[in-house]
């Protein structure tokens, strides 16, 4: 068995969220950004999961260890990689057979702030699945990258009960700036019974996207929002299908479709080099998300008021558009700016974060990560 190291980028939903297959089956424009999580995997006598964090001087320091858990793969420690392994064992007879004869040590690290709305939990699951695929030399056709993304959705949705969109699972694997089509994925059927997402890369064909991100430091799991919005959407969808179209489309169906439409309209604007229109569509997307959150009883949360204040500060400083990166409520916000305005808008975010008492807020101007999942063989894994 060989040694491998891996990394994947975080993601931002630029337009169209939260219609990425969680509440609807529409479209997003999403970007991988150069904030990464990583892993390494090597043969071991017993199954072992290690977690690392970056400490002083950027050095990796141990954050936790779980050993000899092959019997049940249960317990509180290493929840995400163990759930990934359970799902892979159920999906792949090849892996189940090979795993019986050889165990591994899997270590992970991340630079993505926890519960920041940048897809952090999905990254660790993707890394676990990709590391196991590489270490056990699984059939690359049956265990291709689309299957990897779909398995990640099943791990979070079925194993862990985490509700978040398909972009979280696809963008870190494939990378770049992409227009993603989620049609046919509303009901989250088993792998093979619904289409894969259609992933169209736009980087290299469209204008650069000068972005500035503010991660608030306020915890908010995307499931806190999706877990309310998705049941409401599915309830209204079922009632609409049962009762017919005479009564008109319910609120969630209409507004989610409008949110998805910002993505296909944004694709046209981006390909035409029209960043001003693209920014206006970001603002429209954010307005629609606010409407949905109010409708679902989520609008009064203090975190919502804080993130909206950050967005207003960026727009007041001349940002072309500003919105949430994902589900909403807390996490992170970002702004589209004119080239050269990154520093000024970053300062506006910083001042607004200080006024709001966000002592753990982080502001940065990310680059689009042109490469998604990276898997490299090495002779010895690093400690």
Structure characterization notes:
The protein is α+β, with helices and mostly antiparallel strands. The protein folds into two domains: 3-205 and 369-378, Ribosomal Protein S5, domain 2 (2-Layer Sandwich), CATH 3.30.230.10; 211-364, Alpha-Beta Plaits. Helix content is 40%, strand content 22%. It contains ten helices and twelve strands. The strands form two sheets. Strands 1, 2, 3, 4, 5, 6, 7 and 12 form an eight-stranded mixed β-sheet that branches. Strands 9-10-8-11 form a four-stranded antiparallel β-sheet. Strand 9 and strand 10 (332-336) form a beta hairpin. Helix 4 runs antiparallel to helix 5 (167-174), helix 7 runs antiparallel to helix 8 and helix 9 runs antiparallel to helix 10 (342-355). The longest helix is centred in the middle third of the chain and has 22 residues, at 222-243. Residues 68-76 have low confidence and may be disordered.
Summarize the structure.
By secondary structure, this protein is of the alpha+beta class. It contains ten helices and twelve strands. The chain has two domains: 3-205 and 369-378, Ribosomal Protein S5, domain 2 (2-Layer Sandwich), CATH 3.30.230; 211-364, Alpha-Beta Plaits (2-Layer Sandwich).
């Amino acid at each position: 068995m060989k040694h491998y190291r891996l990394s994947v980028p975080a993601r931002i939903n630029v337009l169209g969220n939260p219609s990425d297959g969680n509440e609807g089956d529409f479209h997003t424009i999403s970007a991988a950004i150069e904030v990464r999580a990583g892993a390494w995997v090597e043969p071991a006598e017993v199954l072992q999961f290690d977690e690392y964090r970056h400490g002083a001087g950027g050095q990796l320091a141990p954050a936790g260890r779980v050993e000899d858990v092959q019997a049940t793969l249960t317990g509180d420690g290493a929840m995400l990689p163990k759930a990934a392994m359970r799902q892979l064992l159920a999906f792949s007879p090849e892996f189940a057979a090979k795993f019986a004869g050889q165990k591994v040590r899997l270590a992970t690290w991340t630079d993505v702030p926890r519960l920041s709305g940048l897809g952090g939990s999905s990254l660790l699951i993707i890394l676990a699945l990709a590391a196991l695929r590489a270490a056990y030399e699984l059939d690359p056709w049956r265990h291709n990258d689309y299957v990897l993304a779909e398995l990640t959705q099943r791990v979070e949705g079925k194993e862990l009960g985490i509700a978040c969109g398909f972009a979280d699972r696809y963008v870190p694997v494939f990378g770049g700036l992409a227009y993603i089509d989620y049609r046919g994925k509303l009901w989250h059927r088993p792998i093979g019974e619904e289409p894969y997402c259609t992933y169209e890369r736009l980087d290299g064909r469209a204008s650069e996207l000068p972005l500035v991100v503010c991660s608030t430091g306020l915890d908010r799991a995307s499931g806190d929002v999706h877990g309310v919005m998705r049941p409401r959407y599915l309830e209204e969808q079922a009632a609409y299908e049962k009762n017919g179209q005479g009564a008109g489309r319910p609120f969630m169906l209409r507004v989610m479709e409008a949110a998805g439409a910002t993505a296909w309209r944004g694709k046209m604007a981006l390909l035409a080099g029209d960043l001003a229109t693209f920014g206006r569509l970001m603002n429209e997307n954010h307005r629609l998300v606010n409407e949905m959150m109010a409708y679902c009883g989520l609008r009064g949360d203090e975190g919502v008021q804080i993130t909206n204040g950050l967005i207003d500060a960026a727009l007041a400083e001349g940002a072309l558009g500003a919105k949430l990166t994902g589900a909403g409520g807390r996490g992170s916000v970002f702004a589209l700016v004119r080239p050269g305005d990154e520093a000024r808008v970053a300062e506006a975010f910083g001042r607004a974060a200080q006024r709001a008492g966000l002592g753990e807020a982080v502001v940065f101007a990310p680059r689009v990560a042109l490469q998604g999942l990276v898997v490299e063989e090495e002779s010895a894994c690093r400690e």
